[in-house]
Each structure stands twice: as structure tokens, then as C-alpha cells.
Specification:
single chain, 6-stranded mixed β-sheet, 20% strand, 776 residues, 23 strands, elongated, alpha+beta
Length: 776
């Protein structure tokens, strides 16, 4: 195994060594292995003399002796040729076996009645316990193979199949009787086993549907048999099926067991994989009283590593009905010699070489173990890596490194984590921003009560960064399990540095906020809200259909980009369209702008326009008028749209006439627009015409009436007003006089308290002659 790990490491880092490097390395390895052999021989001799201590072994065989044999073997052969990968025995030695005939990856197919059933790959039907199938199953489970051999002549009566079992009749799984299994697993055999069958009565709703397998998550299982070894293992009364079923429910309440069982169900019912499944676990030989609450307590007792094997079967029960179920062997035999040691060594390699930081803590916060990635964050401060660790000021117990991880801005999360992990037995996952002092507390702070977590929490994030350095973002996961060494509770911490991702998200959200703010300045607030709601619904729908996690930011659905403004659907166009009654529309342009723009430079012209329109924008805020747009030298705004932003601004300004019936009063809006127009004419006196020695002059047109509004366009979408009122207001401006406010009869009538001078009538396109008025 040592040689295998060495070659795997060489392949992981790139090209293999040169010939000379290979020879030198091999000599060093041989010297190291010989020294290790001598060391193990010495220890083995001490153990034979009784000098090995009383530490219990967690392996069934003597691990030290086996390690000695493996090391001697690795010295004899240091290279595996490429031809070994073509040799079937190479895979057999690693427990990699081919599926028996008729049980290649199964697939679901629809029958004529519309139901789904499993069939073996290629459509082959292998219902009998053939010799090949019996031998294949006996390889990993001799007692199951014996039960299958007893049922070799058993025929599958389709009339006796339960609803779920009928879907698996051609899947190639073993077909056995309850009696044969009982005989094969009888007594206190080394293999403890019990049988679960799918409780079809509890799945009655699913059975009524055509697609039975889509309801697998609602299925429940019940125990119908357990051998004496199984009852003894779990400290249950032999033959007590009721107690056994209660205990099975207790097992399923444990998070990781529930996850494994759900994965098994999903593999079967969604993917059609009916092969036996196995996993290893640590068994604690503890008193009966502890077992019934073992997920909430420390387990104290003898520890051993065991293998669970779960095999799907068609089981003919004592009532003659054939049901789909599982044979669960709690201490199944190994598939090949050395399986347990190999799995443990590979598991430790995964721990060591993963890219995430992993660490184990005792509930008091002492760091027991850490992988290299965690050492880079926390320092080599675990009990495994460091001879000495920091204790508190009193020297009574180690510093609580786990709690320090939450010190400062994340202090409130510690109680949340503790409740989830230690009290509820559920994994806890979150995203945290951590500072250097969370990972590596300064020596002066360790055990110093004057520098407490309460002091850190009293400072702001900016202050903490100034005090303790740059913070980094991590995904943090905490879980608990029982220590295989002594059964006590340990807390498992996993951390992944996501600083680059999080900073990119922050920049993205900031850019979205800026874009949203820009859109809000050119699109009315009520339209923004309509589109935000549409955007949120689309995100929720996409999230539901894909079953994905939360989006990158909880506020991302509140922020719009330009794509949300494009009127590319009929529903969107209709949703933002509105009508407004008795508003007053304002148009203004610069007198002689064509001459000015012809004689001045582009920069001077744009500076003039920006200066003038900035003053007009400020006046809009002052008078509560909504700016619609600018086109060239023309400026358009409106009063009385009753937009949320307009109403809020009018409430702040106050000054509504006493005789007005409210904010919808057309007279008030017309009066505000006239006051705004006067302010515009006064502001012109402060802006010099580009390239000329005189100030800018403007002509203004006003008209009151009904308008429609909405957002139009896919490219550069904008908020627009439509209707005859807009056209007339534009004509009032074009037929007006320099430095004067030109109003229609409608606007003049709404502001009859002001002094208006009749013009004697003007010709308005599409309207003919119209009596109009100039403000005095």
C-alpha cells in the first residue's frame, strides 16, 4: 500500500521522476521501510510479552502484524506495470467486481398501462436465482448467497407481487423467501441482519398514481425480521419486532443515517441502480440505556469498525405476498483482504489532501486535529501537531479556539451554531467574514480577560480591520460525531475561502446599485416597482424550477439593470402603461439655438446646455415637477402625474392652496407649473450663450389636459408621455415669444388668479386658430 500511495503521489504532482531520481528515491524508501520494519518487529515483540499496554484495537485482526506484512511486501515489489490494469485479479484485489449478468445498470420503462417498471439493461429478464447470480452475491454476502441457493427453484408469481415489487420483477435482484433468510441468518451468527420491506399501505396515495416511483420520498419501511445477532448487537429483546421498529425510527432520526437512507432510496427509485450498497461505520458497544439516546450523548464503550451492506431483494413473506425490501447486514464481511485498512488509509488521505480546511474540536473548543489547509489558517496548534497548547489564564483548560472563531462581529452566530449542532443534532452552515484574530489570536490576547469577545463585538467592521488586519470570507460548516477513539463527542469544522468570489459579488452588487440608481433617475418610481416585482417573480420561478440555492445577494431581486427596462413583451408594456387626468405639460427651448450651435465649439455648446438644464433640474425639485426628457435644446416636464416620487416631494414642500381639494387638484398643479416657468426665465439670466456676449433666453409653452404614459423601446428605453395634450403644449412653445410664458386657454383657465395677456389667437397645427395667452 505504501508503494501504491507513493506512485499516486507522483502522478498527482505531474511527470514521474528521472531514472537517477527514481533510483535515489527507491534507495531512500527501502532504507526507510527497513527501519520501519525493525521498529514494528520490536513493538510486536513487546506486545507478545504483554508490554503493549491496554489500548483496545478497533480492527478484528492485529493491525500491527498486518502492517508489518504489507511493508515487507512493498519492499519486494516497488513497481506495478501497466499490464496489471488489464488483469482482472488487480480489480478483484481492490474489491471491484463486475455486476452479475442481467443486473447491469437497469432502466425504467413504461408499460402499456402507463406504469413504470424496472428492466435489466438490454431488456434481458433474469428473474431466477441463477448459479452465476448466487455466486456473485455470495462473494460479498455468503449468508445471502446461501438463502438464494435455498430458493433456486422459487418461481416469481406475478399475481402475488405487491405494487412496488411488481416494478422490480425484471430487475435481476435476488428473489428469496422469509423462511430461507431466517434459516440462513439464524442464531448468533457473526453477521447480524434484519429485513426491511417498503410499507405499501403507508404509500397508498402513491399507489393510486401511474408513476409510482415519483413518490418514493413518501415511502416508509418496517422491520419484518431480525436474527439473534442483530437483537443482541442493539441490546434489544430477541424477536421483539415492535421494539425493533421503534429502534429503526430512532436510527433514522440521526442526520447522517437519514441522509444515507435517502441516497439509497434515490439511487433505487430514480436511477434504477439495484446493486447492494455498503458503507463503514464505528460501532460502540455501549449499554442499552445509552443506545436509545445515543444521538444526544457521548458514547463510552468498546469501539470497532463495521461494514453495513444493504441489498435490495424481492421477499416472499409468510402471507404469500412478495414484497420489495432490503436485507441490512450490520457487520457484513469484507469484500477482500485488507478492505478496512485500505478504506481508512484512503479516507485519511482525503482528509489530508483536500483543498478545504478541516479541523476537529472538542466541545470545550480544544483543537484535536487539523489538516494542512487548516494548519495554514490556524497555525499548527492542534493536539496532533503541537506538543503544547495554550491554556486559559487560570491554566485549567485549553483556550476555546472554536469560540474565538466567532469572536467579534460573528459573536451571535456561536449560540445559533451550538443550538443547531449540539442540541438539535443538525449540521450548521453559513458564510462568515473572519479576521486574523479569529484564526490566530495574538499571544498577548490568549487567556487575557481584558481582551474579550465583547470588546471585539463593540467595534465596527472597519475598526476591526484597522485593528486586526484584512478580513476574509469563508463558507463555514460545523457538525458533530462520536470520536471513534473513545466515543466522546467531537465537532467537525470545514472552511472554504471564498474571499475572491465574495469580493466579486460585492463589486457586482455595487455596480447593480449604480445602474439601478441611474435608471431610477430617468424612470418613475412606480414603474421601477412594477419591474422590480416582475424581476423578483422571475427569479423565484427560476429558483423553484431548478431547485437551486439562494441567489448571490438577497437584494439582487430588488436591483434592476437595463435589460429589465426593455419593453420586449406585451405584458411588460401593458403593465407600466397608465393614463393621467388634467396634468399640465411644460415645453421650453433656447431662442436662437441653431445660430449659437453653428458659431460655438461643441464643448462650449454642451457646457451651456449642461449649466442651463442643471438649473432647471434643481427647479423641478424645488417645485415638485417631474422632468420627462430633454431633446436637443428642448426641455419637457409635467405637473400632476400623481407619481409616488412626486407626491412624496409635494408632501415635503407643502403649500397646497386651501381651496384645493387635495394633491389631485388640477389648479394647484397648473399654478406650480407657472411658478416653475417664472423660475426658468429668471435662471436663464445667469447662463451665458455659448460664443456670445449675452445671456440665454428661452420661450415656454404650457397646456393642461389628459395624457398617457409608459416605457417604450428595446434600445435605450425611456419613459414617455403621449396624447393631444403633449402636442398642444409643444405648439404653445413653438408659437411662443422669446422670454415669455405662452399658455393655452385650458392652462389660463386653471390659473385665472394670475394676469394673462390675450395674444389675439395663433394658428396651431391640427387645431386651427386658437386663442392663447401670455403671462404678464
Amino acid at each position: 500500500m505504501m508503494e501504491t500511495l507513493r506512485r499516486a503521489f507522483q502522478r498527482g504532482i505531474g511527470k514521474g521522476p528521472s531514472r537517477k531520481e527514481h533510483d535515489d528515491t527507491q534507495d531512500q524508501e527501502v532504507a526507510f521501510l527497513r527501519a520501519r520494519v525493525r521498529e514494528l518487529e520490536t513493538k510486536l515483540a513487546e506486545n507478545d510479552r504483554g508490554g503493549g499496554g491496554d489500548e483496545p484495537s478497533i480492527m478484528a485482526e492485529d493491525t500491527m502484524a498486518r502492517s508489518l506484512r504489507n511493508l515487507n511486501a512493498s519492499m519486494e515489489s516497488s513497481v506495478i506495470s501497466s499490464e496489471d490494469y488489464e488483469d482482472a485479479s488487480y480489480y478483484a484485489r481492490k474489491g471491484i467486481f463486475v455486476k452479475p449478468g442481467g443486473q447491469r445498470r437497469c432502466r425504467w420503462r413504461k408499460t402499456k398501462g402507463g406504469k413504470k417498471e424496472l428492466c435489466a439493461g438490454g431488456g434481458a429478464r433474469v428473474r431466477e436465482n441463477t448459479e452465476e447470480k448466487v455466486d456473485a452475491y455470495a462473494l460479498a454476502s455468503p449468508r445471502l448467497g446461501r438463502a438464494m441457493a435455498l430458493c433456486r427453484s422459487l418461481t416469481l408469481d406475478e399475481g402475488s407481487l405487491g405494487p412496488i415489487a411488481s416494478r422490480f420483477k425484471d430487475s435481476g435482484i435476488p428473489h428469496v423467501t422469509l423462511d430461507a433468510v431466517s434459516r440462513s441468518y439464524a442464531g448468533t451468527a457473526p453477521t447480524s441482519a434484519f429485513i426491511l420491506v417498503q410499507d405499501e399501505q403507508s404509500s397508498a396515495r402513491g399507489l393510486e398514481k401511474e408513476d409510482l416511483v415519483s413518490n418514493w420520498e413518501s415511502f416508509t419501511s418496517r422491520v419484518v425480521y431480525g436474527n439473534d445477532a442483530c437483537y443482541d448487537m442493539w441490546r434489544l429483546k430477541r424477536g421483539d419486532l415492535k421494539g425493533h421498529n421503534e429502534f429503526w425510527k430512532t436510527l433514522l432520526s440521526v442526520h447522517h443515517i437519514k441522509k444515507v437512507y435517502k441516497a439509497l432510496q434515490q439511487t433505487l427509485f430514480e436511477h434504477g441502480d439495484v446493486t447492494p450498497k455498503r458503507f463503514m461505520y464505528h460501532f460502540v458497544d455501549a449499554p442499552k440505556e445509552v443506545w436509545h439516546m445515543y444521538q444526544l450523548m457521548d458514547l463510552k464503550g468498546k469501539i470497532s469498525i463495521r461494514i453495513v451492506q444493504i441489498t435490495p431483494v424481492l421477499l416472499r413473506c409468510s402471507d404469500g405476498v412478495t414484497r420489495f425490501g432490503y436485507i441490512r447486514e450490520e457487520n457484513a464481511p469484507v469484500k477482500y483482504k485488507g478492505e478496512v485498512e485500505h478504506v481508512m488509509a484512503r479516507t485519511y488521505s482525503c482528509w489530508k489532501y483536500t483543498g478545504n480546511a478541516l479541523a476537529l474540536f472538542s466541545p470545550c473548543g480544544a483543537m484535536m486535529l487539523e489538516n494542512p489547509e487548516a494548519s495554514a489558517l490556524f497555525g499548527m496548534d492542534s493536539a496532533e501537531n503541537s506538543v503544547y497548547v495554550d491554556f486559559d489564564k487560570k491554566g485549567v483548560k485549553p483556550v476555546d479556539r472554536l469560540k474565538l472563531l466567532f469572536a467579534g462581529a460573528n459573536e451571535d452566530l456561536y449560540d445559533e451554531m451550538w443550538e443547531s449542532v449540539m442540541e438539535k443534532g443538525e449540521p450548521w452552515v453559513t458564510k462568515m467574514r473572519l479576521w486574523p484574530h479569529n484564526l490566530r489570536p495574538e499571544a498577548a490576547m490568549v487567556g487575557d480577560s481584558s481582551v474579550s469577545s465583547s470588546m471585539w463585538s463593540s467595534t465596527s467592521s472597519r475598526e476591526e480591520e484597522a485593528m486586526f488586519g484584512k478580513a476574509r470570507w469563508f463558507y463555514v460548516s460545523v457538525n458533530k460525531f462520536n470520536d471513534p477513539a473513545d466515543g466522546s463527542v467531537l465537532m467537525f469544522l470545514e472552511m472554504k475561502d471564498i474571499t475572491e468570489i465574495e469580493e466579486a459579488k460585492i463589486k457586482y452588487v455595487e455596480q447593480r446599485k449604480q445602474e439601478h440608481a441611474l435608471l431610477s433617475s430617468i424612470i418613475p418610481e412606480h414603474i421601477i416597482q412594477v419591474l422590480v416585482e416582475e424581476n423578483r417573480e422571475m427569479q423565484n420561478s427560476a429558483r423553484s424550477s431548478s431547485k437551486s440555492s439562494k441567489s448571490m445577494s438577497s437584494s439582487s431581486g430588488e436591483l434592476l439593470d437595463l435589460s429589465a427596462m426593455r419593453m420586449d413583451t406585451e405584458n411588460r408594456v401593458r403593465a407600466v402603461a397608465e393614463s393621467h387626468e388634467k396634468v399640465t405639460v411644460f415645453f421650453a427651448d433656447i431662442v436662437g439655438f441653431t445660430r449659437i450651435s453653428s458659431n460655438a465649439s461643441p464643448g462650449d455648446v454642451m457646457f451651456m446646455l449642461n449649466s442651463l438644464f442643471t438649473l432647471l433640474d434643481d427647479l423641478c425639485e424645488t417645485h415638485g415637477v417631474y422632468k420627462v426628457e430633454t431633446i436637443g435644446d428642448a426641455y419637457m416636464c409635467v405637473a400632476g402625474l400623481q407619481l409616488k416620487s412626486e407626491l412624496r416631494r409635494l408632501s415635503e414642500l407643502g403649500g397646497m392652496p386651501a381651496e384645493c381639494g387635495g394633491m389631485a387638484c388640477p389648479k394647484w398643479h397648473a399654478s406650480r407649473m407657472v411658478a416653475f416657468s417664472r423660475g426658468v426665465l429668471e435662471s436663464c439670466a445667469g447662463v451665458q450663450a455659448a460664443g456670445e456676449d449675452k445671456n440665454v433666453t428661452m420661450r415656454i409653452g404650457l397646456h393642461s389636459g389628459d395624457v398617457m404614459s409608459g416605457v417604450v423601446g428595446r434600445k435605450m428605453p425611456r419613459f414617455c408621455l403621449f396624447g393631444d395634450t403633449v402636442n398642444v403644449a409643444s405648439r404653445m412653445e413653438s408659437t411662443g415669444r422669446s422670454g415669455r410664458v405662452h399658455a393655452s386657454p385650458a392652462t389660463a383657465a386653471l390659473t385665472d388668479q394670475l394676469e394673462w395677456e390675450p395674444t389675439g389667437g395663433v394658428e396651431v397645427k391640427g387645431k386651427g386658430a386658437m386663442e392663447t395667452f401670455l403671462l404678464r
